[in-house]
């Protein structure tokens, strides 16, 4: 019978998710040599290697890719068991979670908050709303325990540079925070169903010549929107920036104003009979919904929330189609 140590599974899954030994070690709150040692012991026990390591990338071997989902499920079950035992021992707890109003359009975000409160009745869940950049500051200063965040990651250096130069960082989070990947949604167009472009299975950049597209200001999150602005300008399209108070409900803005919008997927998974979503050829960034926390935080109530989120999350998913009309 083969017996696997939990810390070896965590080392393997952490490296696979982060694609980096350094980031995985930081997230797991251990040294990089200790992480490498755990992986080496695990590979020796298995009898095969899990990663191909080059100077530029950390890539799963075929065996590693096949083993990863099993390891993720085993850790999720272990964390749930541990959380349940801790709940029996501790009896209660408090978790302070920050979330921006626009993330309320993510069905999974609402499900995590609602179902966790229903199942873990002995844990008090306090939800604080605000701008995501302010919530990240509250997280890192210890004012709150976790943040449900919609956006993309960047390096700590880039994040700090944008703050120092007063550039907006609302949709960016530093990649050295601990995170549970909940969902990835590819950026797509929402188009009124009676528009000519709605009849196309996908939209090529050339089809956007002379077309007006409404979108959040690219300064909010350049990795998501900046490339589309350049694409639109190159083909002679027009960008219309949406007021911030409308940016969280782009499906409603599309329907109400009869204008094509660019969406990162922040809308409830509900039937849309009068608007469709369409992929833009050559443009495929994804917006992430993640649960962020401080690396190494072992607070029992928080660990219960993280374990619960892992059971609902889509760790390892590389992209999700949204809307309707496409397979």
UniProtKB/TrEMBL annotation:
Family: Belongs to the LysR transcriptional regulatory family.
Keyword GTP-binding: no
Domain HTH lysR-type: 4-61
Organism from which the protein derives: Sphingomonas immobilis
Keywords annotated in UniProt: DNA-binding, Transcription, Transcription regulation
Pfam family, one: HTH_1
PROSITE patterns: HTH_LYSR
Protein name: LysR family transcriptional regulator
UniProt xrefs under InterPro entries: LysR_HTH_N, LysR_subst-bd, WH-like_DNA-bd_sf, WH_DNA-bd_sf
